[in-house]
Amino acid sequence: MGENGIAVVHVDIRPEMLRWAWERAGYDLDDLAGRIPQLSSWHQGEKRPTLKQLEDFAKVTRAPMGYLFLAEPPVERIPIPDLRTIGGGRIDRPSPDLLDTLYLCQQRQEWYRDHARMNGEAPLSFVRSVTTDSAVDSVAGDLRQVLGFDLDERRRAPTWTDALRSFIEQTDSLGVLVMVSGVVGNNTHRKLDPEEFRGFALVDDLAPLVFINGADTKAAQMFTLAHELAHVWLGESALSDASPLSAPSRSVEAWCNKVAAELLVPLAALGEHYRPAADLREELDRLARVFKVSTLVLLRRIHDAGGLSRDLFETAYAQELKRLRAVPRGGGGDFYATQSARVGKRFARALVASTLEGQTLYRDAFRLLGISKLAPPHR
After folding, report:
1. What is the mean pLDDT of the chain?
2. Is the sign of the CA dihedral 18, 24, 30, 35 positive or negative?
């Protein structure tokens, strides 16, 4: 009996389900010993958890409560094609953070698709407009034209970070939902891992959606957006590990990488500005100011142009990546001021308008925004 004479209910949970939950969340038994002292005895079958204790365990491991009562661990599959590789091998087990981010974006896309239909919006003609047999330079040129991605205008931007912001706004204005976040929903305790994924594309004729892992460097985000846009043009949803360094074996990823690189730094334009005899480090900084893209993308393009062998490229890339990671990042600013970036301006405007007009319930709007309660009033 527990306090106040209420019976305490203990539950039978198979040890392999406990192990599945903590390994799924990236923990081992020692990691959770301080937070859940009884876990070892549950796993050994010496004791049984109460229902409340199991709920706490599920919360810590971010495991669906109902799954813990299964006879054997479920096989959780990513709901879109998974084109990521690490060291040439497939990644078999997605993290709860990745899965929850994908599911939330699918819900947002479904809502916006219904909203677009109700408002009579026409399908977007650029979605599924090309194939991997299409010429890379032709597709990249079409992307630049449709986006209004003017190279001269980018050169006039104060920094390449401003160019990235402009790139996102151009994509949003085109009709693509662009969402950038480094956490799951608005939970700052659940940070996304760029080593697991950099972004994904959810293709739809009315509501194409691109998600960018905001925990990644700004340099990587620029390339990820360009890569995922290539997926939208191609008409294939995918979870990607886009990187200027990668040389993926999958033809779709290789093609999207080439389109992204040509979109950001056309080889013809690079040939007009690149000085092969100059010091590479100084040349990267100079070209970064010209093209307003990251030095990592520029290294890739110099390699593509024949200015660096593969070995020299990989060495220079590793050195440049190490240098960039050592540069301190700025603060994140006010939490609620970043909300529009996390859900995208197009989606946020549509959802707010629909809610104020009474077409969407407030509780549904908060769920889609990832907000559990209103922000406290400023004093």
Report:
1. 85
2. negative
